[in-house]
């Protein structure tokens, strides 16, 4: 996708979105509500017509409406609506009939935990079951490229893990996956790379680890010392920013050398940390920071000056012109 533009009244939508998804990659689009993610992926899927820019999917332009593209592309729309009286198995068989070499609907129902609902009407499915069905419908054509918009919204934690496992298998078998998600853990577990979209533009593009590493200086450790410890000795450590006592436990926050410093300081006091848990800055922190920076970075002129000086912390940040 190069310079995609699809503008709705109010100058919202996709203003200038560019990214390349590699073959066999799980690529995630993250971003606040209304930032343009669905607009972007629906232009990839040929469901919306762009105003400008170019989109190339396996050498085809979705705007041309080629039947060939439909054969290689699977789309799970954000709101999938089927007729109320269509049964689960019927829906899958119907969709399978659109493709030359479809997956086995029975196998898909089994893998997506829908086997018991095979005779259920669409209207009788729970939200999570509808979601599973929409994922199955996106995959029934054995697509080379699958677009999944908020694929696990409404799924219970076990179902989410199962869907993730299935998508990894698909990726390993060569399917390219383009996901829209609001779940940072999903992006962390699943995506090879992510683009953060804000106000219709790509504001960061990196691996989830690369993005999270931008805020990786902050760490927090929680533990229960096996004997009373001297808080001041912990506070005096150069890597420690704060020490908080909660019940019988301690929460210590600080920089990169925090864990080693704290464990050694406890050892000097003859104490041990039990139940030690480390919380590192996550993709969610990075996401919030990247998006916040867009909102607080000030007027376009100031931002331009900052980018020119190399002061922007956001790699891949575009020149903001909002
Ligand atoms: N058909 C439409 N007509 C008018 N405005 C639209 C239309 N579709 C989207 N928009 C607007 O374009 C912007 C981007 O919408 P889009 O659905 O692409 O965002 P999104 O990032 O997918 O949001 P969400 O995370 O909430 O699903 C929003 O301000 C939305 O209101």
Automatic annotation (TrEMBL):
Record localization: Cell membrane
Limits of the ABC transporter domain: 1-224
Primary location class: membrane
GO molecular function terms noted in the UniProt entry: ATP binding; ATP hydrolysis activity
PROSITE patterns recorded: ABC_TRANSPORTER_1, ABC_TRANSPORTER_2
InterPro entries, per the entry: AAA+_ATPase, ABC_transporter-like_ATP-bd, ABC_transporter-like_CS, ABC_transporter_ATP-binding, P-loop_NTPase
Name under which the protein is recorded: Putative ABC transporter ATP-binding protein
Origin species: Gordonia rhizosphera NBRC 16068
